[in-house]
Design goal:
This protein is an all-alpha fold. It folds into two domains: about 80 residues, RNA polymerase sigma factor, region 2, helix turn helix motif (Rna Polymerase Sigma Factor, Chain: A, Orthogonal Bundle), CATH 1.10.1740; about 60 residues, no CATH class. It is built from five helices and no strands. It starts with a helix and ends in a 13-residue tail after the last helix.
């Protein structure tokens, strides 16, 4: 059996099949290439030339399964990565400075709005909790 003839006959369909499974163009290209490499390496082991197509698609299917297993393992391993704790804690003074800066920044931006748009729709209690237990700016009167 001639590899290049088989390659030409099956490449487009194999790539389409892999692309439908993986849905990522780059990975589909890699898996299609790996399928072609394996077909070329093991073509001499095919006993029935009539079943070459099924054999090629089985290789492609198995490579897709390997791809998904590797992706799942990679995601599982990434979730186990422990970030070392170096004891950094934000000081209350730092937190207050940041909140004051943010409050001034928000107030400056609010000052650019027309007076009719300055009414804050969020209730004062809600704003208090959203801002870490303190108001960033004084609620403006309703107009």
């Amino acid at each position: 059996m001639d590899f290049w003839k088989i390659y030409d006959e099956h490449y487009a369909r194999v790539r389409k099949f892999i692309r439908s499974q993986v849905r990522d163009g780059w990975s589909a290209d890699d898996l299609t290439q790996e399928t072609s490499i394996r077909v070329q390496r093991h073509l001499d082991t095919v006993k029935d030339p009539a079943k070459v197509s099924a054999w090629i698609f089985r290789i492609a299917h198995n490579l897709c399964q390997d791809y998904f297993r590797a992706a799942k393992k990679s995601a599982r391993d990434a979730s186990r990565i422990e970030v070392p704790w170096h004891g950094f804690r934000e000081s209350p003074l730092q937190k207050k400075l940041e909140q004051d800066q943010m409050g001034r920044c928000v107030q400056e931006k609010m000052d650019f709005l027309p007076a009719s748009y300055r009414t804050v729709v969020v209730s004062p209690t809600m704003a208090y909790f959203l801002c870490g237990g303190r108001f960033l700016f004084q609620p403006l009167p309703y107009s």
